Structures are given as structure tokens and as C-alpha cells.
Known about the structure:
This protein is of the alpha/beta class. It has ten helices and 14 strands. Strand 6 (108-109) and strand 7 (116-118) form a beta hairpin. It is globular and about 70 Å long.
Amino acid sequence: VLILRVEISLFRQKMMSVRRASHAGSWYSGDREQLKSQLSSWIQSARDVGFQDNLRAVIAPHAGYSFSGPTAGYAYAAIDPTKYDRVIVLGPSHHTYLDHCCVTAQKFLETPVGTLNVDEEFNTDLKASGLFESMDRTVDEDEHSIEMHLPYVAYVFRDHLDRIKVGTVLVGSLSREGDEKYGLFFSSYLSNPKNLFIVSSDFCHWGKRFRYVNYDSTRGEIHQSIEHLDRIAIDIIERQGPAEFHRYLRETGNTICGRHPITVLLFAAQKCQGSQSKSFSFSLAKYAQSSQCRLQSDSSVSYVSMLVTLQGDAKVTPFQSHSIKD
């Protein structure tokens, strides 16, 4: 009886330290086998990407999986799970205003395909810097930008869940100086080959419901104008110009929700190149839109997967199947 009580107590303590998969069953399937099958299929469809041996970061979308899941597969198909000890997810805050960054206060991250262990040492180091605070559980579980990547992470690292650690960082509406400050902070983590960054962002949110209807008719139909606008942003990211990216956002107003996590990554790469003589390559793996807008009454969201590799030794290795194992 005493042993049973202890076990129940430990179970309750663990459950109190778990970030629930609060969007499972709505934004993505809550059924373990169905979700595994979907993730496997999307990664298999992107198999031509191949494992990127010197992959340090990916930029990938965070909409409902029926919309953005296939595009995200092009980022996750590039990840060799044997290469990393820590995954760091940077996601924008959609529901709570922040002028700084926060980390999860939980010890475990629940997904339908496996539970991820939070890197508590990473969180301690971040909070010790004075730049980060802990997230309230409600804020943590309301936010989808980080959660939408967790099932993909759990699936790709499914054979390594006992050792892989995950740090989740909610990035607020930072000033330009704030973007640079956090970029400088994360530069040492980006330079570590055992760390993998997942930068969460959708691209243009177009339509009246998003209060953004920028349309250049010289580019053709509305969806073509949107793609042209997004590809300017992609080109700037590939050129690794955080100041140029800021200027682009200011001039176009493009509704890229993960603008701050992306800019933090750009500043981190810039710092590594300046102080450590490390050169990175940012490249587009996939671009898609939720629908093709032709009328002012239409709406769409754009999705992008990009790969960030360390140049010099970077190479592509043959794709190894991520298919489901019994």
C-alpha cells in the first residue's frame, strides 16, 4: 500500500510538470497511430532533401497540420537525429504580449507520439542571464507556435527520446535592439554542433480577416503577388541580412508572424560569422500557400521550410527512411 501511494504521488508530481498537448485533436490528430502515419508520409514525400550533415537550424511553419504539415516535412526530412543532444524551439507569441523571451516552466512536453524531456539545465542558464523568464502554464499551453513542432520533434527523435533534451523559447515582440541582443545570446548555442534550432514561423497572412490585402496587380493574380512578396523576404533571409529584413518588414508590412524568432536567428548567425569565422548557408526547401487567392474576399497563409547549414564541411547524405517502426 505504501509503495502504491508513493507511485501515485510520483505520478501526480510528473503530471503537474507536463505541458499538455493542448492542440491535439484540433490542430492535429490526437490519435497516435494516425499522427505517426501522417508525419511519416510528409517526411517521405520530402525525402529528396536528404540528411544535412551540418544542419544547425530549420525554419518551418506552425499552422494546423492539414495546411502546413506537408511543408514542415521538408524541414524535418533534413534532420539526422543521431547528430544532436538538444533541440531549441523558438516560437512567436500570438496571444500574450511580451517584450522579452520566456521558457517553459514544465519538465516534460506531451505529444501523442511520445513525451519529450525539457532541458532544465538550458532553462536554468537562460534564466540566470536575466534575459528570460518562466512561462505561465496557461500562456504555455495556449500558444501553438511551439507545440506544432513538438510532435514532429518527438517523431524524428523517437529512437532517442531517452537522451534528447528540448528547450522551448517563446519570443516576444522585440525591438530591433532586442532581436540583436537575443541573437548575440544564442550565437554560442548556434555554434555548437550538438544543438539544433527549430524556428517557428508562417509567412504572409493575406486577406481581410488578417487586415492585410497588399496586392501588386503587375505580378498577376493575388496569389502570385503574395508569393512575390514572400520570396523577397526569403531572398533577404538567404542573404542573412537582419537589418535588411527589418527594413523589408517595415516597408511592406508583410504579416510574417515569426519575424522576431527569424531575426534572432539571423543575428545569431551574423555573430558567429563575425566572432568565430563560421559561415552559414540559408536555403529554401519548400514554399506553399494554404490556398490560391484570386478575389479580395479570399484569404491564405504562406508556409516556408528553410535549412540553415554550416558551410565548408556541409554535405548531403542519402535519405534514411523515417517510416514507422513496429
